[in-house]
Design brief:
Length: about 45
């Protein structure tokens, strides 16, 4: 099994990670999730 498939199975079988993804999808749909400030964006894009 390739690494990506193993990672996918790990996430799908991990109820905590699945809840985080469901919560994230909900806040994204409601446009109420985390919004990075300029410094956060600069840090992310400078990698």
């Amino acid at each position: 099994m390739i690494e990506r498939e193993q990672e996918t199975l790990y996430v799908l079988q991990n109820s905590s990670l699945m809840k985080q993804m469901a919560d994230s999808a909900t806040t994204h749909a409601q446009k109420s999730g985390y919004r990075p400030n300029i410094e956060d964006i600069d840090e992310i894009t400078s990698i």
